[in-house]
Amino acid sequence: MRYQNYIDGQWVDAENGATFTSTNPATGETLGEVAQSTAKDVDAAVEAADRAFHKWRQTPAPKRGEILFRAGEILLKRKEELAQLMTREMGKVLKEARGDVQEGIDMVYYTAAEGRRLFGETTPSELPNKFAISVREPIGVVAAITPWNFPLAIPTWKIIPALILGNTVVFKPASDTPIVAIKLVEILAEAGLPPGVLNMVTGPGGETGDALVSHPKISLVSFTGSTVAGHNVAVKATQALKRVSLEMGGKNAIIVMDDANLDLAIEGIVWSAFGTSGQRCTAASRILVHEDVRKEVTDRLVKRVQSLRLGDGLLATTDVGPVINASQLHRIHDYTKVGLAEGAQLLCGGDIAEEGELAKGSFYKPTLFDGVKPDMRIAQEEIFGPTTAIIPIWSLEEAIEVNNNTKYGLSSAIFTRDTNKAFRAMRDISTGIVYVNAGTIGAEVHLPFGGTRGTGNGHREAGRQALDIFSEWKTIYVDFSGQVQKAQME
Ligand code: UN1
Description:
Layout (H helix, E strand, L loop, with lengths): L1 E2 L1 E3 L2 E3 L6 E5 L6 E6 L3 H20 L2 H17 L1 H12 L3 H19 L8 E4 L5 E9 L2 E5 L7 H12 L3 E5 L5 H13 L7 E3 L4 H10 L5 E5 L2 H13 L3 E5 L4 E5 L5 H13 L9 E7 H16 L19 H17 L2 E4 L18 E4 L16 E7 L2 H9 L3 E2 L1 E5 L3 H10 L4 E4 L15 E2 L12 H4 L1 E9 L11
Parallel strand pairs: 1-5, 8-9, 8-11, 9-10, 11-12, 13-14, 13-19, 14-17, 16-17, 19-20
Antiparallel strand pairs: 2-3, 4-5, 6-7, 7-22, 15-16, 18-21
Helix pairs in contact: 1-7, 2-4, 2-6, 3-4, 4-5, 7-8, 9-10
The site of 2-aminohexanedioic acid has 9 residues, from loops.
């Protein structure tokens, strides 16, 4: 199967005919050949988006919303098919793939309804017979650059708010998951987006992504992905004075206090650390356990983690799917070696899984380290795999300090039965998202999503707050006094 770019309402090959392969990380099976775009393809896509902008921005927002609602209906109808494709292309277990599609549907419905809100302000003028309002305006052509770990949900976080506000979009999905992205674009086109309003170019971050970020007609770059790639995007886009919204890494911690409900905490840890094979930017990669319950927590965790079954995410017997590709697999394993060299104690896992069918894909054994010190590399650097580090703590104050002391600041969780401790944690934890008696994953689309410090650059996706990324404010004064009234003059 051969997949093409989508430019100005047409499906087209890359101008030089080049392609790359999308493969199933569980089996190595080839899923299709996908256009490998060059700067020329990017230019054609951006020019098309730029031409479409004028008309789209003047389309009433409720009408734009109607098209997006239709896309939501189609997504809902095709949910199962999309989820199966996602499991084959990205690897996450089928239940989670359904969740990813559902998160996309939620985002589409939630944001489509903004078409009938997009509230601005009216406020009294300081002068008589003068009227003052503020309204949101689109910015122009938006570059949406998305990662492979949520191949449907995250593209909707960017594309849908951009479109409801009247921007046009050039979408570049991750090279590991282009086919799911192509299906999303097909659906948005079928829903009735006019040609040029949404364009897609597939290809590697290096050539395709760089050309997009540097294109003079791109007004805003919205990026989710690794810290290294995000840094590159930020430097290039900022030099060209574009607006940039970045969502990058995490080193999220779960705090388990001595008064916690341990049944709940253990399940929360397993879900947050090993769900999606640990490949969420919200994944719990540090577990800060009060010394008084550490032995019980580690003993129970080891048993639970060793019972997790690795396999193809399409099989009902699988708990943990593959990681995205071989290079990521080796990177994760290198971190195991780093942890051992730093003196952390390996409790289970710690190796590439190659038994039977697993040898065909990229599987890593769910890994637990104990006795980890807060400043070790495995406690500071994002690994993005099924591996987590237990760090002993002795008090809430210490836990909060360790929690806050990484270069990232996305998500945190605390398990405690003590309301006072819960509220102190809610106040003093400095991440963008905090959970009480729940793990670090599972954000909902109608609340702001994003992090402090090196996780991002101050923006929030999702929720009403996403509108601030994709719009400019325009302030309008209407003077109906019939005179030249001079503000701030006596
Ligand atoms: C991500 O990993 O980049 O909160 C997004 C969660 C999901 C979104 C994760 N709703 O885990």
